[in-house]
Each structure stands twice: as structure tokens, then as C-alpha cells.
Amino acid sequence: MRSVGSTLADFEQDLISNLYYQRGTTLESASGSDGYQTLALTVRDRLVERYARTAAAHYEANPRFVYYLSAEYLLGRQLGQNLLYTDTERFVRPIAADLGVTLEDLESYDVEPGLGNGGLGRLAACLMDSMATLDIPAVGYGIRYEFGIFKQAFRDGAQVERPDDWTFYGNPWEFPAPDDRQVVGFYGTTAAALDDPTGLRRQWTPGEVVRGEPSHMLVPGYGTQTVNIIRLWQARASRQSFDLSRFGAGQYKEAVEDIVRAENISKVLYPDDSTEQGRELRLKQQYFLVACSLRDIIRRYRLRNTGWDAFPAKVVIQLNDTHPVMAVTELMRLLVDEYKLDWDLAWSITRRTFNYTCHTLLPEALETWPVAVVERLLPRHMEIIYAINHFFLQEVEATYPGDLDRLRRLSIIQEEPDKRVRMAHLAVVGSTAVNGVAELHTRLLAATTLRDFAELWPQKFHNVTNGVTPRRFVRLANPRLSELITERLGDESWLTDLDRLEGLAGVADDPAFLERWRAVKRANKVDLAAHVERSTGVVIDPDALCDVMIKRFHEYKRQHLKLLHVIMLFNRLREHPDLDVVPRTVLFGGKAAPGYHSMKLLLRLVNAVAETVNTDPVVSRRLKVVLPPDYNVTRAQWIIPAADLSEQISLAGKEASGTGNMKLALNGALTIGTLDGANIEIRDRVGADNFFLFGLDAQEAADLRRDYHPRAYYESDPDLRAAIDTIAAGTFAKGDRSLFAPVVDSMLGRDEYLALADYRAYLECQERVEHAWRDQEAWARMSVLNSARSGFFSSDRTVREYCDRIWRVEPVRVA
Ligand code: CBF
């Protein structure tokens, strides 16, 4: 086989031949999309070769593999990353220039696969990147949703969701692998297995069968030869599903019914679960993912191993939150029913194979499934859950004899108000290690949400603080800053050893360096201003403080607290047009779940405030508010390098970790934040003087919540009252008092996340921000120190911790 060459001439030659043989066109008639696809294929060829060598090295070494099971991956655009990782960008720029296009033109065709919602999916992508970079043998498993996270648009300020047909023009980065398809069953009946006197082995006859077809995306490591893969499953009907006779009889809809039902499984990311069918479809998706993946894991294991004893030594499966937790029961079913292992041995293998990462503290985010739904969809799995629970509760009873209350609390089955399977409990019972994603989160998990488990098995609980990949979120997102850092540190090794950023601290007092640091930020703000103008029509001032709140819209994250601050500024500037305030651009970015009506209304309010502020001739000179639509990984890469201030203002004790906070700090934004999630660790590292802290801590918040009266804050704080009254008066709704009344009612009536209690402290803290901003050199110094001391938040460090403490895997070098 001809191997790809490494020179410019080889690259050019490959481009021409891919254009010709793969796209079937010529230079003269190629479209922009042909240009992009050709480039992508040419870069991909370079990765394929490395992937082939990786596969061979892994086969040879037969190492312990990490299998990462995740319902979500937010990978971001692939072209820029793969050019960097193959060191071919230097070829492309001159070739593109000769052809009269820019790399940026070509990149605009690169569609990001939106196979996730937010932090959890992006974390999965960062960990996969770091595993490859650290030469860890790993495979990610996920679902190839036909439609990823919806595209957000605004109509009259309200969010409208448009389907994300991300593969419409074809995705050059993935390889279909139909030979590795799997068959998955649902519904049906179970019966006793004749050969099993214990009654623990049974036979399941599914009532419906679908195929899972994989394709894989390549995940290259940076600065190494390893290329791992993420395998994504798409549901297909079995071949017999097309009803030819019905079609012949003109019953076209009925003829394809089975096909449609099967393919719906991987149709969309997170089917709406407000209906019974939606809930069932979501569970079906989850089981589909784990059933396909486990069969594939076993297939891979058996390529080099025989018997089952070595299974936990060769296979470690990380459950990314509760979505893939049905894998615990599926592995038991495979081992006991299909491979005829005895229950105890199967359970010991299962428990030693799985680990579980919990990403939340919100009780409503810990999944539970109605027993009735599980029984119908996965009858055999429900039996297995009952059996696991039975043996587990015996263990509990032996440890705490007679403690019925504890049994009830620990049980995998919730009895009241309705019978449900608690997936987090199943995950903890079926795993060796359980981890939270930031120190506070892990501590609170063990003290509250999973307290009984932490008492029962303290050794199971670990903390692994999240991290982010510096390759995407510094090098690719912020080339100007990367160049300056490299120049200062002497080489690019900081990209794989992020603690080296500490070397910047030595120049944090050097005025010439600070000047250059500020110039980088300003240039990034000019770029951002162009993006913002293009997407919103609003012109923003690159010299204004760029105040950024980018994340999913969720009540606990408290975008409404930020908005109350904006409205206070608006009121002040209207009353005192000459007031000396720091010019600011407040940039929001984020989507609200389609069924999350209160947050959709809040988005609408943000847009309405933006419209009022930006068109006010007096206010808009000092304050701008923008909400560019469709926040995603690509847009994050535009916004983060330009941010001066990072808003991390969730109610303490609610944000598990946050990772946007890390990306922003690494790029030199200063954080204004509460003592929540990883903010605490960021503050510990960057130093209290370089972090704007405000608000209740987790304990104070929990105490206050017991007897909380938001109205009292409203009544005693004139600024707060004025801000809320401005909304209530219909100022942002052309006088309509009813449109945003639910926002006001929610703040005054319930204020679930104590925004009003934190309001005054937040305002005072914003005044400290203003004061600090007025000394631009001091601000730049703080900014440098934020980057310099955030090396800890590299996902390479996160992966190393998983490897050392949980996975116990070793790297395999690829020649
Ligand atoms: O751990 C990664 C992220 O996961 C979430 O986004 C999640 O979906 N549970 C959390 O909300 C974040 O705090 C966390 O950083």
C-alpha cells in the first residue's frame, strides 16, 4: 500500500487525486464544498495511516483498554484540529492562497457534529483528546444522532429550534463500519432457562429487533502517533422490515412503519420526554447504545483473549453519567444468560469492569425510570435489576441489621410515590469507583446525594476535577495568545505540559509583555466584534469590558442574576446620563431545552433587554447587550479568547464543576464567581486577588433555603426593586406587563436559586470589577496570572488522574 508522503509536494498531489477520484471533479469545476471535502479527505488520509499503526500496536500489546460510554460528544469542528494534529496547516495556507481562497473560507464548510447538550458532552470530547495525546488505548462509544442538538434561532426574540441536519452534505471525518453491525432486541418475554436450577439464568425472546450500525470518527493525539476512535451507533431496521406486499398494495406509510420505528431510535439527541412515548424512546436509545457497545467490546476482547477471567483486567468501562448505566444489567445478561456464567462470577466481573462518573447534584438530573416502562421495554433487564437489588440489600442488611429506613434509601428501586429504577444507585452498586467532577461536588455528593453509599463504601468515592484540552481551547481558539506564550516559554511544549504556563508569572510585572498581552486581547475582541455584528447586527466596542456569560440556560446558573445587574446599569445610565461607568459589552450565549419554558422566556427577556439597551441613544454609548444565536463549540472558540470577564455565578452547591470557567481563565479572563464547582479550585490556584468572589457559600445557601423570603430582599434593596419593577412595568415589552410577568413572579414568589439573596453582593463585586478595570495594567497583570496558574485545568491532568486512580491503564506507544 502506498503510504502518504510528508512533503508539500505529496500533499498537493494527494489533493489533486482526491479531488479527481473521490469527488469526481476537477479544479476548474470544483465548488467550495468540493474544496473543503477534498482537503478534509487529504488530511484524513494522514490520520488513517496513524490509526492503522495504532490498531496494530494495540493488537500487539493487548493492553487494558478504556471504553468510554457516553450518550453525548460535542466534538467541535474537525478540520482545524486535524490540520494542527497532522502539522499540515503550513501546506494548506499557501495552496489555498494560490487558488484564491482562504483556509477560513474552507473551514466555514466544516459542520460541527452537535452530538451533545453542553458540559458533559464537551468533557467527553476533551477526555478523548487527552487520552489519545497520552497514548492511552481507548475507544469512545456513542450514538450517531441523525439530528444533533437543535439549531437555535430567534424570532421576535423568542428561541425557535431548527433541526440540525449535520450530515446533509456528508461528513468526511467518519468511516462507516457496517461489518461490525450488532443486533439489539427490545420488548418481548422471558422464560426460565431449563439448564439452570438457581432460576437466575433466564431466556429473553425480544419482540422487536433492530440493527446498530457503527461508524467511527478518528481521535488523534497531539504530538504523538496515537489515533483512537469514537464509535457511533446508528439504528437501522432489520432487512426484512420493508413490507413489499403492503407497498405493492399502495399502503406506503404502513410498508415502512417498522423501518421508521427502528430508525427513530437514533433520530434525535434527547427526544422530548414530556410524553410517555418520548420517555420510552429515550430509554430505548440508552439501551441501544450500551447493547451495541458491549457486544463490540466483547468482540474486541475476544480478538486476543479467551475465557472471562481476564475480562476486568483488559476492559475498563467508564459510565459517563447515568445515561449508559443500563450497561451494568446488559453485561450481566450477556454473561449469565448468553455465556452461561454463574451469577456470582458474572457479578464479580461486572463490578470490577465498570466505573461511574456523576456530573450533577440536582436531584431532578439523576435519572430514574418507571419500573413499568423498563418492564415493558426490557423485561429481562428488569428481572436482573431486581436480582441485583435483592443481593445488594442483603449486603446492606448484614452491615446495618434492622435499619429499614436505610434499606429503603439505598434500594435501587424507589417505591414512593411510584415505583422507579434509580439509575445512579444501579451505577454505584455496579461499579468499582464512583467519581465527582470537582472537589466541592465530590464532597457534596458524598455528604448529600449519595450519602448512604459513601457511608457504606467510602473507598469507592473519588474526586477527579474536570479539565479542558488546551489544544482546542487555547492553541486553536486563540492563535495570537498561543504565539505569544510560545515565544515567551521558548517552545510549544506547554501544549502537552500545561503547568509550564506558570513560566508566564515571571513576566506578569513586565510592562512590555503586558502591553503585548493586551494587544492580543484587543485583536481578539475586534474579531469577536465582527462575528457579533454579522450574527446580530449590533456593533460592539472592542475597548469596552467584554463581560461574558456562555453556558446552557438553566435557572441554577442564574442568567437572571446577570440580567438584573444589566438592568440596574440601564436604569442608572438613564437616570444619570453622565455617570462615570466602565463601558461594557455583556455577551450571553446559550440554548434552553425546548421544553424548558421558563428559560425560554428568560432568553426572550435577554433579547428584549438587549434591544432596549442597544437602541437607547444614551445608554448604548456605554452598555451593549448581545445574545448571538446558536451558541456551540465553534462560537465558544470565537468568544472565549475575547472575554475579559467570565461570569460563573451559579448558586453555590449547584454547578457540579463547570468547564467554561476553566477555558475562560486559561485565555486570561478574570472570573466573577461564587464558591461553586471548580470555581473554588480556580480561585485557589489563580489567587484570591485575581478572582472576584461574591455570594453565599454552599452551606449558607442550604441554611438560608430552609426559611427564605425573596420579597424581603426586593423590599429592602432599592436597586433590586427598581430592576425588577422595570421588568414588571413592561419596559422591555413595549409596555406589555404580562409578557415577562412569569419571570417577575418566579423571582418574587420562589426564587429557587436565591438570586435575590446574592444580588447585593454581586453588585458590590461588579463595582470591584469596574474599579479594577480602570487600571488597565493591573488588570492585564491579573489576566496573565489567570492563564499562568490555570495549567492544572488541562484535561491531560484529568486523564492522568483517571489512569492512576481509577482505570489503572498504561500508555501504549505507537511507532
Ligand atoms: O462534568 C462536566 C459538566 O457536566 C454538566 O454539564 C452536566 O451536564 N451534568 C455539569 O452541569 C457541569 O457542571 C460539568 O462541568
Automatic annotation (TrEMBL):
Top enzyme class: transferase
Top-level taxonomic group: Bacteria
Entry keywords, A to Z: Carbohydrate metabolism, Glycosyltransferase, Pyridoxal phosphate, Transferase
EC number: 2.4.1.1
Similarity remark: Belongs to the glycogen phosphorylase family.
Protein's job: Allosteric enzyme that catalyzes the rate-limiting step in glycogen catabolism, the phosphorolytic cleavage of glycogen to produce glucose-1-phosphate, and plays a central role in maintaining cellular and organismal glucose homeostasis.
Name of the protein in question: Alpha-1,4 glucan phosphorylase
